[in-house]
Task: structure prediction
Amino acid sequence: MIYLDNAATTWPKPEEVYLAVDTCLRGIGGNPGRGGHGNARMAGHILYQAREALAQLLNIKQPTNIIFTYNATDALNTAILGSLKAVDHIVTTSMEHNAIARPLRSLEKCGTNLTVVVSDKQGRTDLSAVEQALKTGAKAVVMSHASNVTGTIMSIAEVGAMAVQYGSLFIVDAAQTAGVEMIDVEQMNIDMLAFSGHKGLFGPQGTGGLYVRPGVEISPLRYGGTGSLSELDIQPEFLPDRLESGTPNTPGIAGLLAGVKFILKTGQENIRVKELELAKKLIDGLNNIPEVEVYGPISTNDRTAVVSFNIEGMDGGEVAHLLDSEFEIACRAGLHCAPWAHRTIGTINTGTVRFSPGYFNSKEDVDNALAAVNALGRRRRFK
Result:
């Protein structure tokens, strides 16, 4: 099988990731922070090492301000619902995933003033419109670093500078970029950064995280045991414990640590360059098939390796099914949990077929995928 669905979850993982999960399950098994025995201490050490590795990758000064979550959606809900209130004015964009759109709509129902800045057909955000919205006294701007539909990379550093200027919180969804694109929370003035563990960071599913800048006030969504201050029946005030109730996914975090170490060893830029080379080959090849329409920026200078397209006259779900059943190519079709983005680019009624190559794909994989799409296009051409 040719796997081109890395925007959903990367596969395969580096061998180190599988080994780390297995070693943790078989050889450690302890509950971090919940016991004085050696296995519990080793489990706690895994969590701390993972925070340190992520801090190195994202230029985070305090590793204890990295909170482990179940995924990026969990992290975004914690960030949005834990720091914003119904009386606030919040700014976002029309390219957001439902992990941002739905919690914001829930706040809007309670009275929040929500401004959705409309992006263009390529998914690019109008920075002047963002600034105008922030000038009105917005409490926060919440946006993705890159679209999971068009691959468009947003101007995070510029928006971060605006947020500082107008005194707004800056919450960023890095589900599609953490591990591949350069992220510097200090340089980009990011107050809270949500990331997925199982995508560009090569970790297992069920892992993710949230960075919270020191001084940001945030309330937990869950209360309970933290392994600390157990004599009290109120939640600890300090991070990460304040936002990490219950037993963590230690085997998953062990795998996430191995994935981040792989990135640091391989070089994030090397991973990025390879993925974009494959994306460019896909875009160029798809644009040469008459029946195909490709969405998002043509240049790979401002996009990730996410390539959405449609074949004229064919349902996207049918295309994905045929690619799987006849050509053994795995991809995704539909709205990708991002209806706002599809309304923006004009595909809300059709959705798109999405190829998302990863670091472990090859040029031959792309050639085979292009040949398969061309074959489906020819069926339409000569039908």
Summary: The two ends are 28 Å apart (CA to CA).
